[in-house]
Amino acid sequence: MSPHDERLLRMGVVFVWLATAVASLWEFDGQSMELLAKAGITDHRLAAVLIAAGAGADFLVGFALALWPSRRVYLTALALMLAMTAVASVLDPSLWLHPLGPLTKNVPIAAALWILIRGAK
Question: What is the pLDDT of residues 3-17, one digit of tens each?
Fold first, then answer.
């Protein structure tokens, strides 16, 4: 893969991580809270902590991918994405069937991260 292609792929993944963080906070009292309430997490404080922690993790990974690309950062991103996908699958398995693909998008993201891992130093 050319350095230009690798950068383009990495910036696409960075965009997803940062956009997810922004969307989580933008929809803090909307879809983010609704998702957790649907999963049975109705304590507002706990839900707020979970949303903030998830958004914070998304921001950190997004910035790390943008500023310090390396095999370790790509592996961290992949592990976090797999963990978040597993948690979301337990909380609301119907997300796999959502027409806009909130969980199915993670399959090509995992593939992109794997390609970046293989090419990283």
Answer: 999 999 999 999 999
Helices (H), the chain: 3-26, 33-38, 44-67, 71-91, 106-119
- Global pTM value: 0.90
Extents of the domains making up the chain: 3-119
**Residue 76, CA distances (Å) to 45, 46, 71, 73, 80 in order:** 27, 25, 9, 5, 6
Q: Is residue 68 helix, strand or coil? A: coil
Integer Cα distance of 46 and 111 in angstroms: 32
Asked if residues 121 and 69 have their Cβ atoms less than 8 Å apart, the reply is: no
How confident is the model over 31-84, as pLDDT tens digits? Answer: 888 888 988 999 999 999 999 999 999 999 999 999 999 999 999 999 999 999
CB 58 within 8 A of CB 18: yes
